[in-house]
Amino acid sequence: MKHVLILLGLLGLFLAGCSGGAPAASGEPRALTVFAASSLTDAFTEIGAAFEAANPGIEVIFSFSNSQTLRTQIEAGAPADVFASANTKEMDALEAGGLVATDAARVFLSNRLMVILPATNPAELKQLQNLSRPGIKLVLAAEEVPVGNYARQALEKMNGGFGSGFDQQVLANVVSNEDNVKQVVAKVQLGEADAGIVYISDAVAAPDLKTIEIPADLNVIAKYPIAPLANSANSDLAAKFTAYVLSPVGQAILQKWGFGPPK
């Protein structure tokens, strides 16, 4: 009887292996959660699809918002594996709090600002100086949002070219301060504003809009860092995704969407 029970036990293990009972769970996709700045939405969606294709069995889940909000969520314990910020300030805060390993962050792209206008341009804005014209409806991101802060830095630079107080004249025309750059684009697309200041990459992603270029000497260079999070439950995948973004394939996709190389 003892031998019979042993044989039956071995047979049960064999049948379980053949039926795929235990290994089934390991066949489920592994999820990698990436928190990324709103301006990365289009480029990272494409990068995520390419990464999944190159790594079968991995599913990339994105959460896009302004960098400050994402940093706050991470500090509050939101489960995430990778953070990609539109500025170094938020990444530095996470590093100081031990949520990103020291020296783990890498700048993976640069970005610049551009003025966007509705396709019809009813206000007939043709140059930067027109932004100070009384009655112009301008939309910016809020000052605490990276692109909103960069926009205000650029306007301050313009005081040197267009006269002292130019930035205050322009800011007096702001009718809305948005939570992220995509909301600025949406307001202009809907005709709720005469102009908005966004990243060049956002203008590339919205080819229906008209644009006014901001010269290099009046512009601001935004540096975007990326890093695996110290508390990631998928540290191997987080490192692999970060490396993929920095790879020639990832960089080519980013440049396709209007981003510049790391500076």
Quickly describe the structure.
The protein is α/β, with parallel strands linked by helices and 263 residues long. It has 11 helices and 10 strands. The protein is 41% helix and 21% strand.
So how many helices? Answer: 11
Structural class: alpha/beta
The CATH class of the largest domain is Alpha Beta
Radius of gyration: 24 Å
What is the CATH superfamily classification of the largest domain? Periplasmic binding protein-like II
Oligomerization category of the chains in this entry: single chain
User: CA-to-CA gap between the ends?
Assistant: 75 Å
Count of distinct strands: 10
Q: Mind summarizing the main beta sheet?
A: 5 strands, mixed
Strands of the widest sheet, in order across it, are 2-1-3-10-4
Reported CATH architecture of the largest domain: 3-Layer(aba) Sandwich
Helix percentage range: 40-55%
Strand content: 15-25%
Number of domains: 2
> Could you name the ranges where pLDDT drops below 50 across 5 or more consecutive residues?
1-25
Tell me, what's the shape? elongated
> From N to C, what is the helix and strand string?
HEHEHEHEEEHHHEHEHEEHH
How would you portray this structure in words?
With 263 residues, the chain is α/β, with parallel strands linked by helices. The chain has helices at 2-19, 41-54, 67-75, 88-96, 146-157, 159-162, 166-171, 181-189, 200-204, 235-246, 248-256, and strands at residues 30-37, 58-65, 82-84, 106-111, 113-117, 138-141, 174-178, 195-199, 210-213, 222-228. Strands 2-1-3-10-4 form a five-stranded mixed β-sheet. α3 (67-75) runs parallel beside α4 (88-96). It is elongated, with a radius of gyration of 24 Å.
